[in-house]
Amino acid sequence: HPDTSGAAPMARPFSFYTPHIMEQTFQVYIIQSQKHGRFYIGRSHDPEKRLHFHNLGWNTSTKNGVPWISIWVSDPLSKTEASTLENKVKRRGAQRFLDDMKTQ
Prior knowledge:
By secondary structure, the chain is of the alpha+beta class. The protein is about 35% helix and about 20% strand.
C-alpha cells in the first residue's frame, strides 16, 4: 500500500543505477555478394538480423550486391575490440584476412 508518512521516497543506492551492466557485445562480420562476389565488412549486435537488412537493400553500401551471404562472424567482443578488429579486417582486406584465418 502507498506510503502516507509524507516522507520523501527513499532514493535507490547509486550502485542500482550504475551496476556492472553486462556490456553490450558486438560481432564483426564478413558477407559476400552473390551477385558480384565482393565482400562487405561490418559490426553489429546481431549479425544475422543485419544480414537480413543488407538483403532487403536498406544499406546504400550493399544494396547493389543483393543477395549477400554470411562468410565469417567473430566471437562476441566489446565495442572497442569490435571496432579495432573491424578496422584491422578492412585494412587487410576480407579475402586476405580469411586466407590468414585458414593458415592459423
